[in-house]
Amino acid sequence: MTVIPAFDVTEQFQTLGPDINRAVAAVLASGQYINGPAVEAFAHSFREYVGTEHCVVCNSGTDALYLALRALNIGPGDEVITPSFTFIATAEVISAVGATPVFVDIDLDSFTLDCTRLEAALSDRTRAIMPVHLFGQPVDLGAILDLAQRYGLAVVEDCAQATGAQWQGRSVGSIGQVGCFSFYPTKNLGGCGDGGAITTNDGDLAATMTMLREHGSRVKYHHEAIGVNSRLDSVQAAILAIKLGHLEGWNQQRRQIAATYQQLLSGLEEVICPQQGGLGQGVWNQYTVRLTGATATGGQRDRVQQLLRQAGVITAVYYPLPLHLQPVYRHLGYQPGDLPASETAAHQVLSLPMFPELRVDQQERVVAQLKTALVEVGLTAAVASGIS
Ligand SMILES: *Cc1c(COP(=O)(O)O)cnc(C)c1O
User: Fold this and answer.
1) SS3 letters across 237-259
2) What CATH homologous superfamily does 248-377 map to?
3) Where are the domains of the chain?
4) What is the reported pTM?
5) Under 8 Å CB-to-CB from 325, ≥6 apart: which residues?
């Protein structure tokens, strides 16, 4: 039995291998392993791709978010509004700079911030809003920008899962004060290791982030702030520069795969397909369905996942526990039930295999096995008769 993985990062290396090997060899021969022309060239291409005046590349998406908050001078006593249903890094950096995350619920259809709940989360300590373009779905930023303007808040876009996504014709990462990207291997633009970037139109912010990235130094061995060491390796920059040229094509393939999934899953009432669209254009870092019959205590979703695994279909659960209920945030005092949509998502979501090279026959096998698993777990008695 061949296994269908949740993602496959080796396929891109199969096709681009010769180009990548040549570019890596050139960096190795140059002796410029930190900063230098490969890093400059990629930063330039990436800011042109996103459409901002500045791009500061760094070591990871997490560092990108951290550097953004530091440059915005957000720290102890400050609050930052962010969704609870996201990867830990989004909130972790808020805590890392000494500020407090204020978790807001999501809209279950888009898995992104429920903007109708933002105003209630504001206090006189709120300094910024961090929307997350989760799974590649651009957040509908209208209400967020409006609120930020009215209350003088910064908007820091977490674009880690959404490189190439657009909102109202503009690339994510070019709309708020700062956009933060990750080049972790499974993201839409993935390197062969860690990497990240920060985009902005604010020259002062870009200079401050560069300073913080280099041990708080603008002039070598003169330090004006406690910074970090967070550079993008030249080898990664050279690889990312090659891959960036293919990103639009890969994102288009992801859209096609998403459309095929939607078609194959139509008629399955127990499976809610994700929609990416509205005012934007998504890039499908994940294809995440909701199993509507799954309950918090039933464990049905986990059993479906297990049955799929036994049938050679690997899926993922992003994310099984929302951040407001994580042990690390117990001190903030949130209770189960506080953010119901995030909690519902956490026990109903299942991310199906999604990567640009996924074939239609593989998708058909994924969906056939999903149908079988739903029946076995008792989540889909209604359509059991329709299964051959
Ligand atoms: C991956 C991810 C990050 C962190 O990026 P790294 O490069 O892994 O540090 C931040 N936020 C979200 C939503 C992510 O998915």
Assistant:
1) HHHHHHHHCCHHHHHHHHHHHHH
2) Aspartate Aminotransferase, domain 1 (3.90.1150.10)
3) 10-104+113-244, 248-377
4) 0.97
5) 84, 334, 336, 343
Atom of ligand 1 nearest to the CA of 161: 15
Ligand 1 center to residue 180 CA distance, Å? Answer: 9
Ligand 1 pocket test target in 95, 111, 132, 158 with most atoms within 8 Å of CB: 158
Q: Domain 10-104+113-244: which CATH class?
A: alpha beta
- CA–centroid distance, residue 160 to ligand 1 (Å): 5
Q: What is the pLDDT of residues 115-150, one digit of tens each?
A: 999 999 999 999 999 999 999 999 999 999 999 999
- pLDDT band at 275; cut points 50, 70, 90: confident
Question: What is the token pair recorded at 272?
Answer: 């809610």
What is d(CA 99, CA 97) in angstroms, rounded to the nearest whole number? 6
Q: Tell how far the Cα of 241 is from the centroid of ligand 1, in angstroms.
A: 20
Ligand 1 test: best mutation among 182, 233, 351, most atoms within 8 Å of CB? 182
How far is the centre of ligand 1, averaged over its atoms, from the C-alpha of 65 (Å)? 9
Q: Is the pLDDT of residue 383 over 70?
A: no
